[in-house]
Amino acid sequence: MEKLILEIVTPYGPVFNGQVEEVTARGSEGEFGVLPGHEPLVTTLAIGILSAREGQNTSYFFINSGYAEVGPERVLVLADSAEKAESIDLERAIAAKKRAEELLRHKENVDYAKTESALERAVTRINLAERSRS
Predict the structure, then answer these.
(1) Which of 32, 56, 79, 102 is surrounded by the fewest CB atoms within 10 Å?
(2) Predicted TM-score (pTM) of this structure
């Protein structure tokens, strides 16, 4: 079976580099999937989960927005930040969710867009961490 090279890179360094059979990610226009031979595409990524399937194994990554460059043999993800599901600090994510919810409740001097984004990141991390631990 044909393979894709998947590279996930952040400003802090590489997160993943390997061969996979399928990639699924959350673009700003919706979820999309990539198989070997995909037509070239550049898209923005939303806060969400990226999955990479290799045979019967699927790896999951938290992606904090960015860009994806897709080609027939390679997917390059340039993310603001990214984490493997098993590397997520669940307690830290829960604390971030509580902080964001508290800020949104007080409704004074709050940057709503920034706080809602923080809440979305925390909830996505929590969901992914809980799924990977079960």
Answers:
(1) 56
(2) 0.91
